[in-house]
Design goal:
413 residues; mainly alpha; 0% strand
Length: 413
């Protein structure tokens, strides 16, 4: 029963909020762990089997992220209108199909075609759809729910990299990817049907919008476009480093002189550091503005490079690098998914998150290939200096966004 003046309970179509949160956390962990992260483990084997260069093998990620970027704005608008259930189910089908095509590819063209399918999948089954679904189901608890879900999804690399190290010698990269494809059909697809409200329930929520305690953004419509541009610049520059280097950690550490077991162990800590940062935000009650967290995240990224560039690569300096790098990445994940909510509001979350995804995914897609070329041509030290310079650009853009959102509208003082 609600008393007079209380906000009406939000319709969830009979779907438990806890069930939605747990289900999406699992499918996001599987989704990222089986599509984005395998290339770091299977890359060399793919090069050998397809007779392709390292840059062309990593170009699969570029294809995936570019295709994702191009369709993300449209998917975001559809998520706001229709809800996430059938969109995420379709994404699971595309994910399984894409992994199967990559696994069975006899040549580079077919290999890249598989990544096209994975690109179509990405905004439909991964972050954009999942976090839009959270904003639609969780109501006033959206911010903490997002942080909690990122806590679990941040474990993707920590779980799947060591798992793939075990599976690769047993199955080979092709059969391993087919197993991952089966997981999309047998695990992720039914979970998306089970934990998400039906389109009818979502439409019912929209018709009750006036009676719901909907969360507005902090910006007037006239200020949204400049803020969108600054947010895209800050998150993209940070992400060039975050996405560009992460898949090369193991090879980079080995090139710097660390043993393979040490390189894999330290690189796998990246996920734990990310999860630790997200856990800290959750324990704090998620009470800090995404802008405050964003400034901290972009500041930590360049600091991560100091020890390894000043002293060289040792297990200690590599650990310090991963410590700063992982915490920065963990916090920025929270920023990327909560900033559209903070700036623009819950009712249009999918639309603006999709618009931010467009530039982000284009640069994220280019970054792994760029850093693969830099590592091959300039070596690991030059790659680290390049990443440091890029990360400083992200600091400048985030500080500009923070200042802009605090400034009064034109004509006011």
């Amino acid at each position: 029963m609600t008393t007079q003046g209380d906000p009406a309970p939000e319709p969830t179509g009979g779907v438990s909020r806890l069930r939605t949160l747990c289900g999406l956390a699992l499918t996001q962990m599987i989704g990222w762990g089986t599509t984005f992260y395998p290339i770091a483990i299977i890359g060399r084997a793919v090069e050998h089997d397809l007779g392709a260069s390292r840059e062309l093998v990593y170009a699969g990620l570029t294809v995936m992220l570019t295709v994702s970027a191009l369709i993300a704005p449209r998917i975001g608008r559809r998520l706001d209108r229709e809800g996430a259930r059938f969109i995420m189910m379709a994404g699971s089908l595309l994910s399984g199909a894409g992994l199967a095509v990559v696994a069975l590819a006899p040549d580079l063209v077919t290999y890249l075609l598989g990544w096209v399918l994975l690109g179509l999948m990405m905004p439909m089954a991964l972050t954009l759809s999942a976090f839009t679904a959270i904003t639609q189901v969780m109501g006033a608890g959206t911010r903490r729910a997002i942080t909690l879900m990122t806590f679990f999804t941040g474990l993707a690399s920590t779980i799947f990299w060591p798992l793939m190290q075990v599976l690769m010698p047993l199955l080979g990269w092709r059969l391993m990817l087919l197993v991952f494809a089966a997981a999309q059909f047998l695990i992720c697809l039914p979970i998306h049907w089970w934990v998400l409200p039906s389109p009818a329930a979502h439409r019912h929520r929209l018709t009750m919008a006036n009676s719901l305690a909907d969360q507005p953004g902090i910006l007037d419509p006239a200020k949204r476009l400049p803020a969108l541009i600054l947010a895209a610049t800050a998150t993209s520059l940070h992400g060039i480093v975050g996405w560009g280097l992460a898949l090369h950690f193991i090879e980079m550490f080995k090139s710097l002189g660390l043993a393979e077991t040490v390189a894999v162990t330290i690189a796998s800590l990246n996920g734990i550091m990310q999860v630790s940062a997200r856990l800290a935000d959750f324990v704090s009650g998620s009470r800090h503005s995404p802008l405050v967290i964003g400034v901290i995240a972009v500041a930590l990224q360049p600091l991560a490079f100091i020890a390894i560039l000043a002293i060289g690569a040792t297990p200690v300096t590599a650990f310090l690098f991963i410590l700063g790098y992982g915490i920065s990445a963990g916090l920025m994940t929270i920023v990327r998914v909560t900033l559209p909510l903070h700036l623009f509001g819950r009712a249009v979350y999918g639309t603006y998150a999709g618009r931010l995804t467009l530039p982000q995914n284009i640069v994220f897609g280019i970054a792994p290939v760029v850093f693969a070329a830099i590592l091959d041509q300039g070596g690991p030290v030059f790659a680290l200096w390049t990443a440091l310079a890029t990360s400083l650009g992200g600091v400048i853009a985030m500080l500009a966004l923070s200042h802009y959102t605090r400034a009064p509208p034109l004509g006011q003082t």
